[in-house]
């Protein structure tokens, strides 16, 4: 028998075998071999409610072993369109300091971007989107934000960098263009309307869950495409956009959310945009039931990967 490196999983092997990587792609040996780099951000130091999203990347990796190659709805095989690699996890050295941890996330993402690797992060709490945007956005970019919460509140317990504030900070820092930002699936009670008010006043298009359910995911996706146009766009997906029936394992669950099928339709309607990166966040395995949230996270990460890989291939032929 010849030794086979575990850094190169066999996608055709039984799905319960081999080391779990994101989507069973090879572990990156060099930056040069990757077009799209999937990586974990096991960080939840900026949470305001239930903890546990630090364990999200590991469990999404595990459940992503169930993903296979070809998307039945779009017929996209992302692994044929781009060199996709698991880049490992962001190595933290100061996890008890939020802003220091954010700098380490930003540095990791910068390393990928300088090597022309498109970043696709699996978190982690939603505060991680801010340092990722700091690395990616050299000028204001568009944002598609799918979530139960607007994440545009000002501060919590004296911190302006909690997981409920990243997109307010992103506007203030000139990282995103709020008039080219759409927030989809927003719902749930709040103690103040501060976040919703900021989103509206800054020019963001806010789609509350009632409108989403009334119009349907395909129509909302079409509106998002029209709003973003050909601008560079970042896609951020919070698993709590799903109803807790489909995603109980998250920090701030809100009833009245999307079904997993609605989420698939929404994402499949967001093809052919000028993506510059993406993240999927807020999977909290300690609160999960039967791994359904981690599985949903893995399956929706696969849908996002299809979007990124398709865009990468089109750029390669331009």
From TrEMBL:
GO terms for molecular function: agmatinase activity; metal ion binding. Binds 2 manganese ions per subunit. Keywords: Hydrolase, Manganese, Metal-binding. Mn(2+) 2 binds at residue 126. Mn(2+) 1 binds at residues 147, 149, 151, 238, 240. InterPro entries: Agmatinase-rel, Ureohydrolase, Ureohydrolase_dom_sf, Ureohydrolase_Mn_BS. It comes from the Bacteria. One of its GO terms (biological process) is putrescine biosynthetic process from arginine, via agmatine. Its cofactor is Mn(2+). PROSITE patterns: ARGINASE_1, ARGINASE_2. Belongs to the arginase family. Agmatinase subfamily. This is Agmatinase. It comes from Yoonia maricola. The lineage of its organism: Bacteria, Pseudomonadati, Pseudomonadota, Alphaproteobacteria, Rhodobacterales.
């Amino acid at each position: 028998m010849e030794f086979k490196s575990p850094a190169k999983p066999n996608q055709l092997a039984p799905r319960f075998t081999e080391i779990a990587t994101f989507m069973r792609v090879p572990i990156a040996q060099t930056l040069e071999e990757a077009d799209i780099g999937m990586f974990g951000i096991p960080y939840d130091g900026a949470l305001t409610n239930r903890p546990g999203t630090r364990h999200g990347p590991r469990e999404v990796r595990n459940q992503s072993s169930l993903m296979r190659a070809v998307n039945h709805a779009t017929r996209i095989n992302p692994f044929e369109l781009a060199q996709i690699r698991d880049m490992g996890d962001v190595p933290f050295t100061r996890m008890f300091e939020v802003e220091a941890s954010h700098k380490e996330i930003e540095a990791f993402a910068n390393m990928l971007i300088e090597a022309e690797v498109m970043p696709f992060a699996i978190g982690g709490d939603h505060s991680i989107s801010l340092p990722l945007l700091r690395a990616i956005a050299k000028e204001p970019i568009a944002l598609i934000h799918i979530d139960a919460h607007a994440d545009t509140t000002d501060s919590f317990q004296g911190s302006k960098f909690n997981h409920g504030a990243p997109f307010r900070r992103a506007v203030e820092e000139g990282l995103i263009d709020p008039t080219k930002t759409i927030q989809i699936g927003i719902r749930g009670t709040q103690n103040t309307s501060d976040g919703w008010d900021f989103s509206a006043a800054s020019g963001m298009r806010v789609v509350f869950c009632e409108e989403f359910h009334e119009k349907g995911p395909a129509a909302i996706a079409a509106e998002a495409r029209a709003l973003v146009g050909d601008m560079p766009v970042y896609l951020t997906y919070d698993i709590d956009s799903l109803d807790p029936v489909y995603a109980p394992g998250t920090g701030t669950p809100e009833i009245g959310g999307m079904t997993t099928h609605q989420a698939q339709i929404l994402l499949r309607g967001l093809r052919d945009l000028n993506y510059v990166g993406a993240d999927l966040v807020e999977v909290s395995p300690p609160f999960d039931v039967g791994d359904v949230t981690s599985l949903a996270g893995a399956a929706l990460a696969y849908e996002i990967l299809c979007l990124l890989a398709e865009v990468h291939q089109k750029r390669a032929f331009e």
